[in-house]
Amino acid sequence: MARPRxxxxxxxxxxxxxxxARLLExxxxxxSIAAAARSMGMSYGRAWQLVQAMNGDFRGPLVERAAGGRxxxxxxxxxxxxxxxxxxxAMEAQADAAVAAALDEFTALLKSQE
Length: 114
What we know:
By secondary structure, the chain is α+β, with helices and mostly antiparallel strands. The protein has one domain: Orthogonal Bundle (Arc Repressor Mutant, subunit A), CATH 1.10.10.10. The protein has 4 helices and 4 strands. Strands 1-2 form a two-stranded antiparallel sheet. It has a two-stranded antiparallel ribbon with strand order 3-4. Helix 1 crosses helix 2, helix 1 (18-30) crosses helix 4 and helix 2 (33-39) packs across helix 3 (44-57). It is elongated. The termini are close together. InterPro entries: LysR_HTH_N, Molybdate_resp_trans_reg, WH-like_DNA-bd_sf, WH_DNA-bd_sf.
């Protein structure tokens, strides 16, 4: 099924888009950047790079991490991170609803995917 994708840009960089939103959700679910990266088939280095970019694009960090050690490290979404993700998901739902009829008409022009 076709659906719109929301990418929020700051200049030329994507502050938040589908991939970064999935990464935030995975970090929130797993409590770990490494586990989130594994669940998405992404390297830890790439996930960490995306987290740093997001933390730098917003007025505060979206993800905070705890250093490893005897009990292991971890990562959590901050209140700002949860708020940004919730607002992003709400915008996605609004965009889906706003273009649903037009998208159905548009996809009727495409070849069958069967």
